Amino acid sequence: MKGDHIPLWQPSERDLTESNLACFARANGFEVADYGTLHRWSVSEPDEFWNAVWDFTGIVGDRGNVVIERRSGGDMFCARWYPDARLNFAENLLCGEEGRLALVEATEEGVKRRVSIGELRGLVASAQQGLKRLGVMRGDRVAGILPNNVDALVALLATASVGAVWISCSPDFGAPGIIDRIGQVNPKVVIAALSYVYNGKRYELGDKLSAVLSGVAGLENLVLTGHSVPLIDAHGVNCLTWEQMCDVETKALSFERVPFAHPLYVMFTSGTTGLPKAIVHTTGGVLLEHRKEHVLHCDVRPGDVMSWYTNTAWMMYHWLISGLASHAAVVLYDGAPIIRLGKSVDCGILWRIAQDAGVTHFGTSPRYLASLAQAGYEPGRQNDLEVLRSVLSAGAPVSAEQFEWVYGSIKQDMIFASISGGTEIIGCFVLGSPIHPVRRGEIACKSLGLAVDVLDERGASVIGRKGDLVCTEPFPSAPLTFWGEGGEERYHAAYFEERPGIWTHGDLAEQTIYGSVIIYGRTDTTLKPGGVRIGTAEIYRILETVPEIHDSIVFGRIVDDDEEIICCVVMKEGCVMNGELKARLRSELRQKASPRHVPSHIYQVSAVPYTITGKRVEGAVRAVVAGKPVKNIGSLVNPSCLEEYSALRIESRS
Question: How far apart are CA 631 and CA 577, in angstroms?
Fold first, then answer.
């Protein structure tokens, strides 16, 4: 057996007998050890499976008698789920005994506040009455420009409680990026913070909000959160504070039950190649998919505490807060993941919060894990993580070496679950489970109820070879549509045009003989030197082991009907890219990957461009180097660094 295939973690007897997934399998007549058969049943008998999930996870609402209505011919595009169901998202999250812990609010100073479910219901009840007083009704849009704190979640739940639609932007977005998003959906109310703190510095948002107000048509109300906030020039929009909005006669919290397909969220892609796609997600689809993932795949139980380092715009925020429906508490953190003040670097803030809050499920990203490894910080040796049962990672592929680092530096007796899906499905196509072993570099299993496959250029399913990640059968959390004119046509073109009737997700992937999946990156950034498909993750995996390199970005450039690989690296302090290091990098890539993985050009740069949600933006760099515009610069957290890359276009042709 190859060393890569020796499990780093194996399920215990308790996992195989008492985990939620084990109980679910037995309750439906399946052997716990035979996940393949369970998964095939989940996609071949959708009526039975999704009804079983609804009942097992205890979803509150009336599901009706019909599970799925397909278009003629069985096309998965725009299949209708639970057409007779009625439910409310907020009602499902605001569940449980009054005194159970619901929220842990934290900042860069640590845990600041704990909120019970009873207290949270009271806050949502006041906000609900305030929104109603502003005329918010079922189907209206409410937008938030808020940090990850209690106010943001209360605003979201109050919006959902009346059947309105929630749209979220992080306050660190630039004004153009915010306008590009909420300007598409014409909200009736915008709820915004006037400031936020990141890395010890307070950022004021007054000028940004004024620009947003002047750029968004039809807005009626602006609500400002924070203590003693001044009102701003609101360009004729009714402006009031959060306290003023919530200062209404106390009434019992009520829930407007809506159809399964009623819009809950409008979420946005990164939008680095044009206006962000405004993806409409349904109330029932979000709830059912998250309940399945949390309860069955993540083994979330009442009393657990979930955290994820995220802003309020990333889908992982919405994934996290759904943990409330499992009677778990969620950590809301507003701040930097690693605090850098002058020469002082604090890598431990998230782990100290995890220790203080008793986190059982810790969510993060490969970039954050790489930063900890580079800094030599070992969370398991510096914090009490006794109750931690799972670390999860999303946002990019996790290298095999990072799997080993996690088990060596965080904790051995836990599940490390790399997960992959996207904003488009507000969930996961592939993820972990309590009954699967963890193997380095591999995602443990396909998500129950999703007919995930990997197809080659012939459209044939392949194992042990790279191909396109697809889904061949309908699933509840697929988007309802894209917001705006021609939304259904744009939605179809994005995911069904390449293979009619089949969702093509845009990831380069490989299925293994174990039923696990390896993700190599997005197909729109896949490299094709000599016509051979190479995922950028294959190169990043090797570059991340080079001690002199802090960060890197890899992209392709078309030359004479072929593609050459260009690699740009950010060096650690005191290190310089020279001829000797370039030769060593090329040698390692040739030996550890293949000759085709070797870059034609290697450059030292000062920064790598990232989206605000923490993803490398290979496409933006590729466009700049080719002399093409980046259409939505507002999606980048550090757009000014692209100026450095524009010079590479001249240098590489010299």
Answer: 31
pTM for the full model?
Answer: 0.89
Closest CA to 218 of 173, 179, 174: 179
List the structure tokens of 653: 């042709």
Convert the pLDDT of each residue in 464-520 to its tens digit.
999 999 999 999 999 999 999 999 999 999 999 999 899 999 999 999 999 999 999
pLDDT in tens, 307-353: 999 999 999 999 999 999 999 999 999 999 999 988 889 999 999 99
Under a CB-based contact definition with an 8 Å cutoff, are residues 164 and 196 in contact?
no
DSSP state of 324: G
In a 3-state reduction of DSSP, which class is residue 272? coil
Residues written for the chain: 654
The Cα–Cα gap between 91 and 104 comes to: 20
Which amino acid, 454? V
Q: Report d(CA 556, CA 554) in Å as an integer.
A: 7
CA angle (571, 576, 579) in 5-degree steps: 120
Residues 337, 552, 445, 504, CA torsion sign: positive
Give one DSSP letter per residue of 463-494, joined into a string: SSSEEEEEE-S--TTS-SEESSTTHHHHHHHH
User: 297 falls in which pLDDT band (50, 70, 90)?
Assistant: very high
On the question of pLDDT at 652 being above 50, the answer is no
User: Collapsing DSSP states into helix, strand and coil, what is residue 567?
Assistant: strand
- Between CA 593 and CA 400 the distance in angstroms is 13
Which pLDDT score is estimated for 637?
83
Residue 629, both tokens: 């515009």
Question: Which of these, 387, 333, 328, 393, lies nearest to 360 by C-alpha position?
Answer: 387
3-state secondary structure of 340: strand
